[in-house]
Amino acid sequence: MTDSQTETIAFLEGMMTGGGRKRVETHISIILLAGDAAFKLKKPVKLPYADFSTPALRLAACENEVTLNRRTAPDLYRGTRRITRTGSGGLELDGPGELVDAAVEMRRFDEDELFDRLAERHALDTPLMEETAVAIAGFHEKAEVLHTGGGAANLRGVLDINRAGFATSHVFSDAAVAGLDATLRKRLARHAALLDARERAGKLRLCHGDLHLRNIYRTPEGPRLFDCIEFNDAIASTDILYDLAFLLMDLWHRDLPGLASAVVNRYLDRSADDAGFCLLPFMMAVRAEVRAHVTATQAETAKDGGEALKALAGQYFELANDLLNEQEPRLIAIGGLSGSGKSTLAVRLAPLLGVAPGARLLESDRIRKALFGAGLSERLPDEAYAPGVSEKVYAALNDRARTILDGGGIAIVDAVFSRAEEREAVSAVAAGLGAPFTGLWLDAAPDVLRQRIRARSQGDSDATTEVLESQLARDPGPLDWTRLDATADAETLTATALDMIGGGQPTSM
């Protein structure tokens, strides 16, 4: 640390008021905390990916940090403060004198609300993660579109950096590193055309770049994404799904597959980016490899906790390999009358099928509401359930399922399927692509269905007892799907469904 920054820190800490004083350091930043305020300084370092070696460069980086992070957390980033020399030789904020340093002024928040802390306390839940997924999708929709010709080339560059990073540590054998690198490059070659097409289609954007649980926190108004990559736009200039993949990988690594499944499915419901779903296992593997080599390097330079860091690096390395397991495309359709528990079973199955992040869950209720531009808790008018609308809903379900299977993924379609032609059409999607198909029908007595509908709160489904009665009065025709007892407990029903599907484990490489 230079003398000038030592002076800067003393000046800022001297002017800060309030309790809870704390100083946090990273390899490129110093954060000073007191009361409800925080000041973030850039260390005067010059690295291959970041140059903060002069006050002017640090000022520019601070201004960029505020601009970029206000996209997602405007209430957190108060502004950039110039630290200048006074005529008497002291320091002041935003004076006319010589620029000595710069800082980002922020509003301090409760660190216990950080998502990684919530995860440690088992306080992350599905509604919060679904809200986060929608927030991320909304952010990506508005992010600056970039056309750099860097679809596959961007990720090839990441693999090159990863390979060089492993060479600086000795946690993993050369053979293990070479094996993972070779498999990743083969997978990149498989996806290169799609990645390049996505860049041309505007999917490469100025994203967050560091979107893991520690960079999201909970507020009463909803989740906030913060601390994006501000020091090197090239690092944050990436495919929007690669941005999302960091969060998915983090959740999967923390053994929270159900939450990862909720995030990816709500994100894709909002973005309709089903054609990119097939990229996510590879992108998550690249993210895991990044964490493996970074953590391995930290392990070799750490004064304390080196063995724990080596173990953590090993977890990431193993996860990267697991994410590259092969899977076969498969289609599962879950049908049954309203109140039979289709959505509950589908949600439980999704993270258990195939490689991470699991199966793509396609729900008729969500697609129907999207067609009418309605929120998930909004009740649709009666005309939303007219036969012509239902035909559009089932057609959309089949189209999306076809997209998922065509990319090599697994899809679960959740709808009533009370008409024979609807069941035939969804099975034809799988047959047309030569993929296995499993049709599951949930059975329950009419009184059980009525009781369930009366008891449940307003959610995705608008089904009423009147809707159920009309379903009960309709002849479903020949039903050749596997019938399951919808009154069985959730664990038993899920296990039975997995047996009918054929398990959920991917094949090894």
From TrEMBL:
It comes from Ectorhizobium quercum. This is AAA family ATPase. InterPro entries: Aminoglycoside_PTrfase, Cell-binding_unc_protein, Kinase-like_dom_sf, P-loop_NTPase. Residues 178-268 form the Aminoglycoside phosphotransferase domain. It comes from the Bacteria.
